[in-house]
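2024-03-11 09:14:02 DEBUG pipeline.ingest accepted 1 chain
2024-03-11 09:14:02 DEBUG pipeline.ingest length=85
2024-03-11 09:14:03 DEBUG pipeline.predict start
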Amino acid sequence: MAVEVRKRDNESSDSLIRRFSRKVQQSGVLLQARKIRYYERKKSKRRVREAAARREELKAERDRLIKLGEIDEFTMFPNQRGGRR
């Protein structure tokens, strides 16, 4: 996927670079390059299912502890957006 930008009459170099970088962002070239930068083996269906089940169990346990008042839901992730309430 090649991105090409040609300089227009009376166009400054800054404007040309800005236009080029915008085209690159819109074309998705950088996203694709980042995606293929490291090879990641495909996970087996069994592992994907087990990971999903583990996440569900952890979420259910966290919700249970929050309901019981044993943990505060905002102290678990203090750096998350929204902060404390």
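2024-03-11 09:14:41 DEBUG pipeline.report DSSP finds three helices and no strands in the chain.
2024-03-11 09:14:41 DEBUG pipeline.predict end
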